[in-house]
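thought: fold this chain, then report.
action: predict
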Amino acid sequence: MAMLEVKDITVRFGGIVALDGLTFSIEEGQILGLIGPNGAGKTTLFNVVSRIYDPTEGSVTFNGDDLLALQAHEISQKGVYRTFQNLALWPGLTVMENVMVGAHANTNSGFLKSMFKIGNAAEEKMLKERAYAALTELGLEQHAFKPAVGLPFGTLKRIELARALIGDPKLLMLDEPASGLTHSEVDELADVIKMIRDRYNLTVLLVEHHMRMVMAITEQIVVMNFGKKIAEGDPDVVRADPQVVEAYLGSQKV
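observation:
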């Protein structure tokens, strides 16, 4: 059984079909890239899996459980975590506090109680230790007690990644994590994604426009265009597919 199975997912917004019968699956431990031009429906699919959107048709199962029967706040309890194209950090909180937020959904005290200092003290201490360990893992420990506001964009991207890791994810969904990064930062991020996949035994669903990174770190790629799947396979198969070249890759060498 695949870890994540997306079957015949269709999403309509009025007369617009954002996803049109999309079907694919991810095996445990795999890094799967979901690619396509802007407007292909990639983020819409992320929003369905993370329960922000309800699909018009279709099913999504995670380790055999029906994800569509869950509320958005219950997804993380199953081990499904995501990052966003636009940073979803609190600039007024420290880096440590931002990372700790990633685990509060799975604690007894919860985020609001913790922010008002009425949570369980032992649990809060444990979260701080885990947050610092996640920051150290990503080379960010020197920023732990700084406000998030004003830090370099590449650093903020890694902070968001640390926040996802602290929640003990099984499936990590990364929505354009390399957006806005320099070439050297993209290469570094690719190494980080492979490292955390191996070290944390993760399965990764990656939406990304940086084709060099996608081709370098994914085992399987699903290509979308206008809400439909137009190709699927390993990087070599996808790279050579004429539909992919026409719809997305164009004449660029990947």
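thought: worth noting. The chain has ten helices and ten strands.
final: tokens above.
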